[in-house]
Design goal:
Length: about 500
């Protein structure tokens, strides 16, 4: 099938007349569809459509906007299995995980639908008599939404649902590796009753993203992706003072103390490190283990990692799918070689899988390095693949120092049965998300999601915090005294 852009409520081809292929990373012979290789002019058309639609959409009462989102969530729930299978075909992760991805879109859309009857402001007493004071949220305008391939329905829902309930319009550019999930999401919104032009979809590459971060009629840019690209997006948006939300990389740590429940910690590190083939911004690519538990932990982790079944995510017996692309797999292979050269001990894995059916996809063995030093590149740089670096520590204080010793600050966790250690770690690790006796993945939609340092720029997704990205506060004063009253000057007599 050939899929088109959605601009102003119409599904239309790109002005370029060019298409790109979307293929299954587990089997490159499996052609999923062809999508529009859009131009900046296509993106500008979408922005113009969104700008026109904004004038009427912003005036739709928020509860009515929310009812559309509620219907959309119902439709996604009805089609969950189909959407999950489409997602597994186009980005590779196992069906159990893509079902979770779709469920997160359902959860987020329902949650934001609930906010349509809240969008709370404040009412406060005025310092002057016969005067009323309050604050309200107001929409901002056209929002550019630029999303990655690893959560191709969940992450768009984190951005688009709050943008819509606040009264904004959207131009959505998905990753070129996962456009089908984006089409599925937009078609559901359209079917649920989102008016023409309120949500627009344009597929394509970096030049489309550049237009969407520089166009003068775009008021908000919400981007999830690498720190390097996020920096460029911020620079593009700065001259016109757009509101910019960035959710970028991570190099997350699990701390395993000597009093940890060993099997639970191993299970968590296995899921944190190799879930989604390590292709999560929250992946647990670093594990710091107390020296008294190190040998037993490493033996168990290596045994379990080596036994993981790798293959097509459509196979229910498979536990880890492919890398999403040849380029991503090449990055993994490069970092494995860097780890070897740096002197880390390769404990299991370390090779691309090429035999038999593996030859048609981008598969890599689950890989664990031991004897890693904190300054090594494999312990400092985001790999985005199935590679876990294990380090020793002699104390909680040392573990926290190692955990904080990277440029990112997204997620961290600790395994311990000591409540004092747990609270010390949650206080001292400088991250946006923290877990106790659980891995670094597993965020829920009703709490803020995001990170510190090079992971983000201070905004958050999910929960009511997302509303702050897509709305502005307006303070309102109503004076019904019938005379001029000057705040801070005309103080009433007591």
């Amino acid at each position: 099938m050939t899929f088109q852009n959605c601009i102003g409520g119409r599904w239309v081809p790109s002005r370029s007349g060019k298409l790109f292929d979307n293929r299954n990373p587990a089997d490159r012979d499996d052609l999923i569809g062809r999508f529009q290789e859009s131009t900046p002019e296509d993106a500008a058309d979408a922005v113009a459509a969104a700008r026109r639609a904004y004038e009427s959409w912003r005036l739709v009462p928020a509860p009515r906007r929310a009812e559309i989102l509620f219907r959309a969530a119902q439709l996604i729930a009805e089609r969950k299995e189909d959407f999950a299978r489409d997602m597994t075909r186009e980005m590779g992760k196992v069906l159990e995980e893509t079902r979770g991805d779709v469920q997160e879109a359902i959860d987020m859309t329902y949650f934001m639908a609930g906010e349509g009857r809240r969008l709370y402001g404040q009412t406060v007493p005025s310092e002057l008599p016969s005067k009323f004071a309050m604050s309200i949220r107001q929409p901002i305008g056209v929002c550019s939404v630029i999303t990655p391939w690893n959560f191709p329905m969940a992450i768009p829902s984190w951005k688009i649902a709050p943008a819509l309930v606040c009264g904004n319009t959207v131009v959505f550019k998905p990753a070129t590796l996962t456009p089908l999930s984006a089409v599925n999401f937009v078609k559901v919104l359209e079917e649920a009753g989102v008016p023409p032009g309120v949500v627009n979809l344009v597929t394509g590459g970096a030049d489309v993203g550049t237009l969407l971060s520089t166009h003068p009629d775009v008021s908000v840019v919400s981007f999830t992706g690498s720190t390097a690209v996020g920096r460029t997006v911020s620079q593009h948006a700065a001259p016109t003072f757009k509101k910019v939300h960035l959710e970028m990389g991570g190099k997350n740590v699990i701390i395993v103390m000597d009093d940890a429940q060993l099997e639970l910690a191993v299970e968590g590190c296995l899921w944190g490190g190799f879930g989604t083939t390590g292709q999560r911004c929250t992946a647990a690519s670093r594990v710091v283990v107390h020296e008294r538990l190190y040998e037993a932990f490493v033996d168990a982790l290596v045994r379990r990692a080596g036994a993981l079944r790798v293959g097509s995510g459509l196979d229910p017996s498979v536990q880890m799918g492919p890398s999403v692309s040849e380029a991503q797999l090449a990055t993994v292979v490069t970092y494995v070689e860097i780890g070897r050269q740096e002197g880390a001990t390769l404990l299991t894995g370390g090779s691309r899988l090429t035999a038999g059916a593996y030859a048609r996809g981008f598969f890599h063995e689950p890989t664990v390095f031991g004897d890693v030093r904190p300054e090594m590149r494999i312990a400092q740089e985001e790999i985005f693949g199935p590679v876990v670096a294990v380090m020793r520590c002699a104390s909680l204080e040392e573990a926290v120092t190692i955990g904080n010793g990277v440029t990112y600050g997204l997620s961290a966790s600790i395994y311990t049965r000591d409540v004092n250690r747990a609270f010390t770690a949650m206080r001292d690790l400088y991250t946006g998300i923290f877990y106790v006796n659980a891995p670094t993945i597993g965020a829920e939609v009703h709490l803020p999601f995001g990170g510190t340092k090079s992971t983000g720029n201070g905004h958050r997704e999910a929960g009511t915090a997302a509303l702050d990205v897509f709305s502005e506060w307006k303070s309102i004063y109503v004076d019904f005294s019938g005379r001029l009253q000057r705040a801070q000057i005309d103080t009433p007599e007591l």
